[in-house]
Amino acid sequence: MIAGLAVVMLAGAVFHLSLQYNAAVDATLRDARTKSKTIGSQAEQTFSETFRILEGIADVYVHDRQHGGEDQLRLHELMAGKLSRAPQVATFVIVDENDNGVAAARAYPLAPDFDRPERSLVRYESRHVDGFYIAEIYKNQRPELAVGTWLLPVSMKVAGPDGSPLGRIVAVIDVQFFEKFYKILDVGTHGRITLRSSNGVLIATNRAGTIGDHTPEAEEQARILSSRPDHTIEIVKPWTAGEITIRYMLGNAPLFVSVTLDARDFLASWRVLLTAVVIAILSIIIVMLGFAYIIFLQLKRAEENEADLRQAKAVAEEANDAKSRFLAHMSHEFRTPLNAIMGFSEIIKNKVLGGDVAPSYVSYADHIHRSGEHLLHIVNDILDMAKVESGVQPLQQQAIDMGEAIASAVSFIEGVAGQKNVRMQVEPMENLPQVTGDERFVRQVLINLLSNAVKFSPAGGKIRITASYAPGKALDISVADNGPGIEPALLRRLGEPFLQGNPAISQSGQGTGLGLSICKRYMDLLGGELIIDSTVDRGTTATIRFPHSLLRTDNRSGAR
Predict the structure, then answer these.
(1) What is the pTM (predicted TM-score) of this model?
(2) pLDDT digit string, tens, across residues 435-450
(3) Which of 188, 327, 404, 510 is the residue whose CA sits 20 to 30 A from 361?
(4) Does residue 462 contact residue 499 with C-beta atoms inside 8 Å?
(5) Closest CA relative to residue 437, chosen from 345, 361, 337, 522
(6) CA distance 338 to 376
(7) How far apart are CA 280 and CA 112, in angstroms?
(8) Cα separation of 532 and 520, whole Å?
C-alpha cells in the first residue's frame, strides 16, 4: 500500500513538473513575441519618424533650389530645429548632386573641408540605411557623443519636379538611442536583444557586442526572414540550446530584431521545483528502501518463526500421536482386568455359586459392578477419542436409515431415562432422506447426545427429538432438553476434550467431558456439523446437520 501511494505521488510530481515546464516555456514564448513586437515597433517608429523629418527638409531644399539657390543659414536653422525634436538623430546633413556638403544641423557655416562620412551612402535607392562610422567631427558640437560612438547614417535621395537629381538628405542616428531602450527591457540576466541590418551587420544590442560586426549566419537569417510572409521566425530550444529566440524583420527599413530569452532565466523557478521534486523522490526512494529492508527483516523473522512453529507443531503432533497411542494401548490394558472385575462381581451379585452369601457382600459386589461399568465407559470414551485423534478410525460408507438410527438410539437410552423419570418424546419423522456415512458413528453421536440430555435433565424432565428437512436443504436432527443450560463462556468452548458444560455435574464425578468432543470429531469425519444452542435455566438443544451432498433423496425413511 505504501509503495502504491509512493508511485502515485511520484507520478503526480512528474505530471506537475511537466505542466509547470510547459507553462514556463509557453509564457516565455509569449513574452519573447511581445518583446520582439515592442522592439520592432520602436525601431519602425524611429525610422518612420526620421524619414518624415527628412521629407520635410527635402521639401524646403527643393523649394530653395527652384527659386534661386539654397539658403544655407535657413537650412541650418531648419535642421537644428528638427534636431531638438528628434532624440534619435545626432545630426542632419544635406549633400548636393555633386556630393558636396550644402548644410549641416550642427555646423554653420559648413567648413570647406567638411568630412562627409555619408559618402558611402551614394546609392541609387531612394532610401537607405547603411555605412556605419565612428563619431569624430561632432565631438566639439556635441560633447555627449564621445569619440568612438557608433553612428548610423540614414539617407533619402532628393529630385526636382522634372526628376533631375538634386542630392540627398542624411540623418545620422545615434546607435545608443536603441541600446538605452533595449537595456530597460527585462529579458533576464542572460537574455539578448540585437538590431541588425539586412546584410547581417550588428547595429545595436543590450549586451556586450562589437557594433558593426558582420556574420554570415546573421545575413542568412535576414534572407530567410525576408522570404517569409510574416517576416517572423520562432526558435524554441529550451533543452538543446537552452533558449527561445524570436526574430522579426521591420517593414519600413532593411533591419531585423532578434530577442533571445535564456532557459537559465525562465526555467530558474522550474529548476528549483525540479530540485525539490528530485530530493523528494530520492527521499521517498530512501524511505521505501528503508521500509523494504524492515519488511525484509520482518519476513525473515516471520519465516524463522514459521519454521520454529512448524518444528514445534511437528513435535506437538508427535507428542499427541504418542499420547493417543499410549491412551489406546492403556485403554486396551484396562479392559482386560475390568472385564474380570465386572464378571466376578456380577457372579457374586447374582449368587451364581449359591445363595449362602452375606447380604453386605452382595451390596459390595453391586457397587463394584456399577463402578466397573462406569470405568469401562470412561475407558471406551478415551479409546474412541484416541482413535479419532490418531486418524486410524476408518469410515464405512453406507446408506443410513435415519428413522431406524434414531429409534435404536432412543431404545438404548430409554432405560437410563426411565430410572431418572425423564420422558423422551420423538416427533413424527416421515419421508426422511437416507444419509451416506458410517452408521456406527451416527448411532454413537445420537446415543452421546441423548445420554447428555438425560444426564442434564432434571427428574421429571422431558427430551424432544425432532427432524427438519426441506428438498434441496440440509437434514437437521435435534435433541432438546429442559436442563440448566450452559453459560455463554463455556458454550463457545464446547467440543474441547474433557470440558464439562455444567461445573456442578463435573464436580459430581459424572462423565468424562469427552462425549461432545467425540460427537464433534465424528461429525467432522462424516462431513456434517454439530451445533449447540443453549440458554441458562431454559435448556440446551444439540443439532447434528447433514448437508445436502450427503443425502440420498431417492430413498426415504421414517421413525418406527
Answers:
(1) 0.48
(2) 988 888 888 888 888 8
(3) 510
(4) no
(5) 522
(6) 7
(7) 78
(8) 10
